[in-house]
Specification:
With 347 residues, this protein is an alpha/beta fold. The protein has 13 helices and 5 strands. 37% of the residues are buried. It binds zinc ion.
C-alpha cells in the first residue's frame, strides 16, 4: 500500500507536472462542471460535512484545472440515506438512481467506512459511473488503506470524464496496486480530448460523429491492451448505440450479459438496440429471460412495461407495471393512469 515514499514521489510528480503542464485541451476554453455533493448517513455524521467535502474537492480542483482545463462549481449539497451497502459499486448506482441531480452535471458522493482487512487486496476507495457520478470512501485517519485522497479523487475525476484503467504505471492504473502517480497516461489523454466537451445529460449523442468514432477506437485499444472491465465494454456498447450502429452495440452488449447475466443496465441497453431495429418482440423475449438473473429485477419489469406499451399490449404492460412496483420501482403517474392502475396517492 501507500507509504510515505510513494506519497513523496507523488508530490514531486505533482510539482513537475505543474511546471510542465499536460497541454490537455490547452487550446480549448475552460470547461465548468457543475457538481452536487452528497453525504450518505455515515459521512453526514461529520460536523459540517459540507465544508469538509468541499475542501476535499477544492484541494484537487487546482490540479484538475491545470491538467484538464476543467473547473468545478458546487451547486448543491444533499444528505442521502441508504440500506446497509453490499459494495461501493452498487451504492454508486443507487445514489445516481435515488438522488435528484437538479441543475448539476454530476454527483460526487462521500461515505465513510471502517478500515478494511489488511488481507483484502482489491478494496476500493472510489467508484465512478462515467458522466453521472462517483462515491469516494474515506477511512479513519490511521487506517493504512486510507489512500492519498487527492490521488483517488483525480483518478475518479478522470473516470467521470470517461477515462479507463490501463496497464501503465500511471494515473489510471487501478488504485489497489501500489502505484501512485498523478500523470495521466497517453491513452486517457486522448480519451479526455474527445470527452471534455461532452454534455453529461445527453451523453455520447452530444459528441460529433468524428469524436465519437475516435473515442470508440480508444476504448477498443484499451480493451485490446487487456482492459476487460465490464464497464469499459458497456461504455463502448453505448457509444455504438449513439452512432446508430446497433449491430456492433448488440454484439458488445450480448457478450457482457453472456459473461455476467446480473448486469441490468446492459440487458436494458440490449433491449433498446432491438427495439430501435424494430424488433420489440425480440427485446421482450430477451428481457423475459433476464428477469431470473438480473440484479435489478424491478428495472427489467419496468422496461418490459414500456416495451409492451409500444406494441399496444396493455394487458401485459399492466402486469409488468405491477411487478416493477412490487420491486420498489416508481412508475410514472401518467403511465399508471393510462394503464388504469391506482397511483401511490390513491387509496
Ligand atoms: Zn479506477
Amino acid at each position: 500500500m501507500l507509504n510515505k515514499k510513494t506519497i513523496f514521489t507523488g508530490l514531486v510528480l505533482l510539482i513537475l507536472l505543474s511546471l510542465t503542464g499536460l497541454a490537455l485541451g490547452k487550446d480549448k476554453p475552460r470547461r465548468t462542471i457543475k457538481v452536487k455533493l452528497v453525504a450518505d448517513q455515515h459521512y453526514a455524521r461529520y460536523e459540517q460535512w459540507q465544508r469538509k467535502a468541499a475542501r476535499m474537492l477544492l484541494d484537487i480542483a487546482e490540479e484538475v484545472t491545470r491538467n484538464l482545463q476543467i473547473d468545478f462549481q458546487i451547486v448543491g449539497y444533499e444528505e442521502w440515506k441508504h440500506d446497509p451497502e453490499e459494495n461501493l459499486y452498487n451504492l454508486t448506482s443507487e445514489m445516481i438512481r435515488e438522488v435528484d441531480i437538479d441543475s448539476a452535471d454530476a454527483l460526487i458522493g462521500f461515505t465513510y467506512g471502517t478500515c478494511p482487512d489488511e488481507n483484502v487486496r482489491a478494496h476500493t476507495d472510489g467508484v465512478t459511473i462515467p458522466y453521472r457520478g462517483m462515491i469516494i470512501k474515506t477511512y479513519p485517519a490511521r487506517c493504512r488503506r486510507n489512500l492519498y485522497i487527492p490521488y483517488v479523487m483525480i483518478h475518479e475525476m478522470v473516470h467521470l470524464m470517461g477515462g479507463v484503467h490501463v496497464r501503465e504505471r500511471s494515473l489510471m492504473t487501478p488504485v489497489f496496486t501500489d502505484t501512485v502517480s498523478l500523470t495521466i497516461d497517453r491513452l486517457n489523454q486522448n480519451i479526455l480530448r474527445h470527452t471534455r466537451d461532452i454534455d453529461f445529460r445527453q451523453g455520447y449523442r452530444s459528441l460529433s460523429r468524428g469524436s465519437l468514432r475516435k473515442l470508440a477506437q480508444n476504448y477498443q485499444l484499451a480493451i485490446s491492451q487487456g482492459n476487460n472491465e465490464l464497464l469499459t465494454h458497456h461504455e463502448l456498447g453505448k457509444m455504438f448505440m449513439a452512432m446508430g450502429n446497433y449491430a456492433d452495440a448488440i454484439s458488445v452488449l450480448q457478450s457482457i450479459v453472456n459473461f455476467d447475466s446480473t448486469y441490468t443496465d446492459a440487458w436494458i441497453n440490449l433491449s433498446t438496440c432491438y427495439s430501435e431495429l424494430g424488433r420489440s418482440d425480440r427485446a421482450i423475449e430477451l428481457l423475459k429471460g433476464a428477469v431470473a438473473t438480473a440484479d435489478q429485477r424491478g428495472l427489467i419489469h419496468h422496461r418490459l412495461m414500456e416495451l409492451y406499451l409500444t406494441i399496444g399490449d396493455s394487458v401485459n404492460a399492466r402486469q409488468e407495471a405491477t411487478r416493477s412496483q412490487k420491486q420498489g420501482i416508481v412508475v410514472d403517474s401518467v403511465l399508471l393512469k393510462r394503464l388504469q392502475l391506482p397511483g401511490e396517492d390513491d387509496n
